[in-house]
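[Structure tokenization] protein backbone as discrete codes

[Encoding] learned vocabulary of local backbone shapes

[Begin record] amino acids and matching fold tokens:

___
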Amino acid sequence: MNGLGQPVTLTLTAGQASDIGQAEALLGDHAPDVVIADKGYDCDAFVAVIEERQGEAVIPSRANRLEPRVLDRHTYTERNVVERFWAQAKQFRRVATRYEKKAANFLGFVWVAALTVMLK
């Protein structure tokens, strides 16, 4: 998501796939100033990738981390923009319940829902 809460990249994965497995692919060629994510993205390798691109990682540490990173709580509150976007996108019944069996069709409906939310 960009700073306005609009999706930059959408990737469809299997339900059992981890968040961190797609993290670098979601960054792609982007060089963001700040990457705000939840604990699912807490990985030293991913934070290193962000810092290589001159960005700041605002990701809370997992509970089992021996040396927790310092978290900018004020910046982390901006993550609600993403949560609000998905709350609006899930108002579309086809997205919320995944009626489509084929991944390409489902991703198409997710894009339609995203565009509709952005145009509001």
Notes: The chain has a mean pLDDT of 87.
